[in-house]
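Quick start: what a row looks like.
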Amino acid sequence: MKITGSVVTYNNDKTIDKCLETVLGITKDKDYDFSLYVYDNASTDDTISIITSKYPQVKLIKSDENKGFGAGHNAVIKRVRSDYHFVINPDIFVDEDTFGTLVSYLESHEDTGLITPKVLNTDGTEQHLPKYCPTIRYVIISKFPGFKYLRRRYTRQDEGLREPTEIEFCTGCFFGARTSYLKKMRGFSNRYFMYCEDSDLSKRVMKDGKKIIFYPDTTVYHNWQRDNTGNLKGIFRFLRSLLVFFKKWGWRF
């Protein structure tokens, strides 16, 4: 069995080392063949030097410009010839064979399009990520004082999900799928530079009649900094992507 993974980087020298070290370490000498691709969006920090000096086994693709998150992963998805493929953020790290566990589930569930594990913060607490499709109240109103309960509902936090559960949203920070299915879906939509491309893919998967599964019996860690929305440029990109998403899929309150 062949499994591939893709990491899209842009100035991620603070996290890429641990990401690659743990992913390559966990997948070494398993009963499957694992290959890791990194698509770099013209980083100007030490990201490239870290990869080339420490991880020669990584298949590195260097872009001469920042083409965005989805475009980077799509470039890899078009190239790979594997049975299963994983989308991995550069701030993800692992300490168990989450890849093999999720593939085992996919092997026995043909109706599953995408699968994502429980995502933890670096301190081991659960990172409660969305489980429903984005709506105005979930994405915008939930950020205001007095409406935090909407965020808990959006992430299904209060349900304490302990079994594999069908959800409506698959986070782009880490998920797996059959490679053939990602190719069929043509990966991420090129309408989004960053943000909401995972929401859009989730909607298309459900429209195609496939399930999205949250699998809490295995985990990854996400060193989530929210750096990209800490400035006006990041906020503008987020709002623009949200507008594109709602115009395409409808303005749901």
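That is the whole record. Strands lie at 2-9, 33-40, 59-62, 84-88, 92-93, 112-120, 165-167, 174-178, 211-222. The first helix runs from residue 16 to 26.
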